[in-house]
Write a structure and sequence with these properties.
By secondary structure, the chain is an alpha+beta fold. The chain contains nine helices and ten strands.
Length: 342
């Protein structure tokens, strides 16, 4: 049941992304042919008699697409029919393309705003303790529990979570003695940090506290939090590309599902906060300037606006097809590694 809830929640984020494309296309007078959540053989299909749009849910509800008439430049009528995507001005086509990622940005902001303004947002604190645990990681196997306070690591006093990261990181693959405090008792725990490229990891998140703010402050907090998360993600991406950071690695669908399951089991508030994070990652990922993604299409449209010339339609289609298969292959490789080797 937990897995089903997690998959449905991720499907909803994707549905909002596609709803952005769908909504702007219809508002701007383009004909939408199909709105699909998921891929492969549909398990549900319905066609509106009024609009002629087909709505469907694929067998694998991770992903989705909106088929706008004429988006495929080789489609019949793509450059003749007035309701075709290709017949619209560059700025209209651009709005349709960026509407998907923007929808993810908006839903992430709304989740954060609602949490911090009405329920409380779990904000990480830099304290020497154990927040959530990664399933089957060294910390969980050693018996650490959420709420444990870490006093010492190998006899060295630690005051902050950053201190913990430093000490654990320096003991990759080595027996490490932690002195923790749990319910007033001091307990020694022996743990062997996993060696990840020479850096020790035990699989714990920092402790967090619920933050409650007024409506105005909640709006400001949600905005700044979105900016912070996106900035950190861009920094991590650049660090991974430039190989200046070994603590950052790509996550495929299996890892995302596992992380979402951990968050759900730790409480619904944490789960919603994680969903806002994933929605922000969808916003960022889709705007990367890579063909086959919304960001790549946006680059082509900017080229058209600047030069007043369209990108050759055969080049456009070829690049999008090639990079689509490259991305699918990378996701497949990462997923296989996460399932069978991590």
């Amino acid at each position: 049941m937990v897995w089903i809830i997690v998959i449905i929640a991720l499907g909803i984020l994707i549905a909002f992304h596609e709803l952005g494309h769908y909504g702007l296309a219809r508002i701007l007078g383009m004909k939408v042919v199909k709105y699909s959540i998921g891929f492969f053989k549909p398990i549900f299909t319905w066609t509106s008699q009024k609009s002629g749009i087909t709505y469907q849910i694929g067998a694998v509800p991770l992903g989705g697409f909106v088929q706008v008439k004429g988006m495929n430049p080789f489609e019949e009528g793509a450059f003749e029919d007035v309701d075709s995507y290709q017949m619209q001005s560059p700025w209209k086509r651009g709005l349709v393309i960026v509407a998907g990622p923007v929808a993810n940005l908006l839903i992430a902001w709304v989740i954060l705003f609602a949490l911090v303004g009405m329920v409380g947002f779990p904000n990480p604190v830099n304290e020497a303790g154990v927040g959530q645990l990664v399933p089957e990681a060294p910390a969980e196997k050693a018996g650490l529990k959420t709420g444990d306070e870490v006093l010492q690591i190998n006899g060295i006093a630690v005051k902050t979570f950053d201190d913990m990261v430093e000490q654990i990181g320096a003991n990759a693959g080595k027996k490490t003695l932690l002195l923790i405090q749990r319910e007033g008792r001091r307990i020694p725990v022996t743990i062997v940090p996993k060696d990840e490229d020479g850096v020790g990891k035990i699989g714990v998140y920092p402790p967090s506290e619920l933050v409650h703010l007024s409506i105005g402050d909640a709006a400001k907090f949600a905005t700044l939090k979105c900016v912070q998360v996106l900035s950190d993600a861009l920094g991590g991406l650049w660090g991974m590309i430039s190989r200046t950071r070994t603590d950052v690695k790509p996550a495929g669908p299996p890892a995302i599902l596992k992380m979402a399951k951990v968050q759900y089991e730790s409480g619904f508030i944490n789960f919603l906060a994680f969903m806002s994070f994933i929605s922000l990652m969808l916003f960022l990922f889709n705007l990367l300037p890579i063909p086959a993604l919304d960001g790549g299409r946006t680059v082509f449209l900017l080229y058209e606006l600047i030069t007043r010339k369209r990108v050759n339609k055969r080049l456009d289609a070829t690049l999008n097809t090639i990079f689509f298969f490259i991305l699918i292959t990378l996701v497949g490789v990462i997923s296989v590694k996460e399932v069978f080797f991590d």
